[in-house]
Amino acid sequence: MLTMTPIPAFSDNYIWCLANSEDGKALIVDPGQADPVIKHLETQGLQLDTILVTHHHPDHTGGIRKLASLNPGCRIVGPAESPFKEVTETVSAGNTVAWQDFVFTVLRVPGHTLDHIAFYSDTRVNDRPVLFCGDTLFVCGCGRLFEGTPAQMKQSLESLRQLPDSTGVYCAHEYTLANLRFARHWLPDDSGLEAFEARCQQLRDEGKPTVPSTIGDEKALNPFLRWDDSSVTDSARQYAGANGLTCVTDEDIFAVTRHGKDNF
Fold it and tell me: Bridge-partner residues for 220, per DSSP?
């Protein structure tokens, strides 16, 4: 039986654990801290054998050295040409990574960082294909552009937008309510966002995560995937006019929306 568990870390990170309860093997994604992972593995009786890394930021890699020291032979898979060098297997766009019955395709998704990659598999967990997208795509949001350009991030998100609607979006942070506050400000008349915000608030009030979402939900709700939606373009052009920004192309619309979030 396959299970997918978000392991909370820091104040708002999720470290994902994909596990096979039959053989006790576990795959961990972006372990910024070791101790929460160690506790989860011990509690569930799991043995770590693979770590996937989406990008080099310390809140995604800081626990790897300790985990590797406690699990000799653990495979560490991460992006090529990255500042993070403690991997045993580097991968680039189009490469595949096999684990159990999964074959993950590596997607290049620069923008948040230049080395950022994502891992996609059409093998289903909870009846969904799986996307580990790190800090590229969030529930109703996207990552800040620390290294890449708006054009790069928009292209990265477009590649994710093309995945099947049922794909589970296993992002790395519980940013949903903050993202929704901006989305509702940007699109105040969007009834879908209003209803979704209420559902997410209830989940958080119950101490439950708002992730994963799905690609279908993100396409319908997330303003950063809706650069060709008239309601988003209207808001972007209004904001651009008030702030002296260019807003003509789809790339402009995405960039203006990102600027709006950065200054919200």
Answer: none
